[in-house]
Amino acid sequence: MRRTIVAGNWKMNASKESVNKLILGILSGMSEVSSEVVVCAPFPYLSQVEALITHSQVKLGAQNLNANPAGAFTGEVSANMIKDFGARYVIVGHSERRSLYRETSSLVAEKVKAALDNDLTPLLCVGESLEQREAGETETVVAEQINAVIELVGIGAFRNIIIAYEPVWAIGTGKTASPEQAQAVHLFIRSLLGESNESIAQGTPILYGGSMNAGNANELISCADIDGGLIGGAALKAEDFLQICKAG
Ligand code: 13P
User: Fold this and answer.
1) pLDDT surpasses 80 at 133
2) What angle in degrees, to the nearest 10, is found between the helix axes of 238-245 and 16-29?
3) The pLDDT value given to residue 248
4) Strand extents, DSSP E, the chain
5) Model confidence, pTM
6) What is the CB < 6 Å shell around ligand 1?
7) Minimum-distance ligand 1 atom for the alpha carbon of 171
8) Which atom, in ligand 1's list, is nearest to the CA of 210?
9) Each residue of 177-198: pLDDT tens digit?
10) For a substitution probing ligand 1, which of 6, 9, 96 has the most ligand atoms within 8 Å of its CB?
């Protein structure tokens, strides 16, 4: 039985005041939540969140990392720095990073490796654009994104990797993939992992992301191969996020 994981990706949305309010709101409802809950905060707020979630079930993640351990990389943040603030997760290869910052699948794989080498759990994001879906390329795109990681770190490393399927056309658009569309890709991803190792394929959590909200979370998370969600907009409101955390 795979665990259910709900992770909030706050993206570049936070202030000291809003972080305080959001975390206290989430904590107030956690007694009714049984899924694993992660909040991925912007770097400057990791310390604040670390302090607020002490002794709670809420876990901390970052949204990106540099693949190098240290050195002359102005403006960048390493896996070790993230770990220093109590974070155990890090989002890697989000579509916004792939498209806006030109992150290739091989760079994403390097980042996954750096996270794993430092005992951080990567939340590896994959997903196709609308153009690619309409051209019937969804499986090819997702397979290329995942195979690049398998090639670098090996299938065994997926014991410590969480995958998030985030169709680019569903991110921030309010246009969610239907449970059937999402389930089909999740099943494809699991089969792809299964070609290398069936037991790892069965154990790997695959989250859905893309306009998941309090209203549609239940239906999506109830699908056989959808093990939770990676939530953007709806993770910024404690009430909505908690509702999603209770789904599934
Ligand atoms: P939205 O939930 O705002 O569509 O964002 C999804 C996402 O990109 C999570 O990483």
Assistant:
1) yes
2) 40
3) 66
4) 5-9, 36-40, 58-62, 89-92, 121-126, 162-165, 206-209, 228-231
5) 0.98
6) 9, 94, 166, 171-172, 209-212, 230-234
7) 4
8) 4
9) 999 999 999 999 999 999 999 9
10) 9
